[in-house]
Amino acid sequence: MKISNFTQQAPTAIVAEVEKKAIDKVMQFTYAIKNGFNPPDVVKRYDEALDEIDLMWKGCVKHSIRYGHQLSSIIVRECNHYKMTDYANERFNFKFNKSNRRMDYTFDKFLDMSKMAVAFLIAKYKEVYTFEVEIAVVRVLLYYFDVYVALGYIDTFSFCLASDDIYKVINTILQTDMLSLKPYVDKVGDLVPTVQIKTDYKFVKPKPTTKEDIERCITSDYMTQTEIVESIMENWDVCRRTAYNLMKKYGLTRQYKKTDEASEGVAEVHQQASDIAEYSWKYTAEKYQKEVVEKDKEIAELKAEIERLKKFDK
Predict the structure, then answer these.
(1) Residue 192 CB burial class (10 angstroms; 0-12, 13-18, ≥19)
(2) What is the pLDDT of residues 148-160, one digit of tens each?
(3) Residue 17 burial (CB < 10 Å; 0-12/13-18/19+)?
(4) N- to C-terminal Cα distance for the chain?
(5) For residue 310, how many other CB atoms are within 10 A of its CB?
(6) Which residues are bridge partners to 157 per DSSP?
(7) Domain regions of the chain by residue span
(8) Which whole-number Å values give the CA distances from 6 to 37, 44, 116, 125, 177, in the listed order?
(9) What is the pLDDT of residues 148-195, one digit of tens each?
C-alpha cells in the first residue's frame, strides 16, 4: 500500500480550513523560492506562517494517539525517546549543537530526513492527514537544513534548493510503498510503546470560544438552520442543544434562518396558486353565465319564431 492510500483528507469543515491554508502556504513558499525573493525574509515569513497553522491545527485536529500525547505542532520531532537529531547523527554523522544548528542542504538528505519525519507521524498517530505530511516536509527543511547561503562579499543571498525540490520530496514520499518506511519506523520501535503511558492523561476536546469558530462551520449561504446545527455538532463534537445554544449565543440563528425564508417562499407560492385558481374560477363562472344568458335569449327567439310559423299553418 502506498503512503498516499494511508493518509487521509480533512474529515470536517474546520480541519479542511486548516488543510487549505497549509496547502496554500506550501505553494506560496515554493513560489517565493522560484521567483528569487530575499531568502532570509522568506524563511522568517513562512516560519511564522507555519506557526499560525500549528495553532489552528492544535485547536481542531483530534488524533487517535498510539504513543504519548498530541503535540502542539504538526511535525513530530521525537517519539519513544528517539529524536530526529538522533537519526541525523546515525545516518549522516552530524551532531546538532549551538555551533552546528543545521546541516548543509542536499536533496538526498532532505528526502531521507523527510521520510523519518513521516515515519514519526505514522508511529505516533493512528491516522495521518495528507496536509500534515506536506507541512512536516517543509518543517524538516527549515528546522534541519541551511536553505540559503550568502553570495560572496555582497549583501545578497541565494537558496540552496531548487523550487520544485519540496514537491519532489512530498510526491516521492506519498507514492512510496508503506513497507519502505519500516527501516525508519523500526528506529522508533515496533509501534507499541516501550514505556508505560501515563494513565492520568486525558485528551481535552477543543471548544469554540469565538463567533468565528462557529461561523467556520457555515460553509454556504444556503445552509438551513438544521444543517448549520449538524455542522457545529460534527466539527466541535457537541450535542444538538449545545450547537443551537452556540448559534443563539453569537446571534446566528436569525441571520442564517434559511428554513423560515424557505417557508415564507412556499407560502407565497401557495397564495399565488390560490389567487390564480380563484381568478380562474371566477372567470370561468362569468364566461359560462354569459353563455347561458345568450343561449336563453336564442331559445326565446326560436320559441317566438315557432309560434309565428304556427299561425301561418292555420
Answers:
(1) exposed
(2) 998 876 678 999 9
(3) middle
(4) 114
(5) 9
(6) 150
(7) 3-188, 211-249
(8) 35, 32, 16, 12, 10
(9) 998 876 678 999 999 899 999 999 999 999 888 889 988 887 554 333
